[in-house]
Amino acid sequence: xxxxxxxxxxxxxxxxxxxxxxxxxxxxxxxxxxxxxxxxxxxxxxxxxxxxxxxxxxxxxxxxxxxxxxxxxxxxxxxxxxxxxxxxxxxxxxxxxxxxxxxxxxxxxxxxxxxxxxxxxxxxxxxxxxxxxxxxxxxxxxxxxxxxxxxxxxxxxxxxxxxxxxxxxxxxxxxxxxxxxxxxxxxxxxxxxxxxxxxxxxxxxxxxxxxxxxxxxxxxxxxxxxxxxxxxxxxxxxxxxxxxxxxxxxxxxxxxxxxxxxxxxxxxxxxxxxxxxxxxxxxxxxxxxxxxxxxx
Length: 296
Prior knowledge:
Radius of gyration: 19 Å
Number of strands: 4
Largest sheet: 2 strands, antiparallel
Structural class: mainly alpha
Oligomer: single chain
Number of helices: 10
Helix content: over 70%
């Protein structure tokens, strides 16, 4: 397990470095034709820039997916890992395919290039992966934090689903305006909305999709005992905060400040508070026994 933990850390570092590399390309290179011209003078410059535009987004999402998958397997076991990952990927892909085909539940939008092969020519295969790794990170922290508050079982699960989905949606508050209005956008809204180019319907769709796959995962997790990794939540917190920071820098560079403030209030603050509750309180012997024997 130590070897798996080390691999998780390497994947996390690679994920963060890949996002930093992507930020440099989007913020510094794309808006500056003179800088692009200077890069073109060097063969390696043109190669690196071309690679980053063609596959940079794919790499950072694959690294995060691998890191979170290994973490879930190591801390929760095979059943609880797959019973979250598969519903998250399958149901979010279904929502995205429905959305890009009909406009429901997110609104009228379509993906452009830069995020990998498109399933059915509509949705990049990396998009459902991002729903999984950000959604899992938010949900496991929310569940662990609410467990320490000694709420009733059904209330704890409901709260984790709601808070997890809210944190997931708050990430999109910040990410969507920048990614759809970047110098080279990754998706576009054919039906622009009132919230910095996005329809409010988009957020309802995000909440509904998050609630759906988290509720399915919670139901499946009830089938087997679960020991929550209360003192080992650093990786999911790092994944969430790193992706939120990536979106924040893009939004601030584009002059979008209100989405960042809303995202911090509704996403970052609740998650950090729940993380603190989960990790800072000592585990009593009775709670340890309960965690090992109670179904969630």
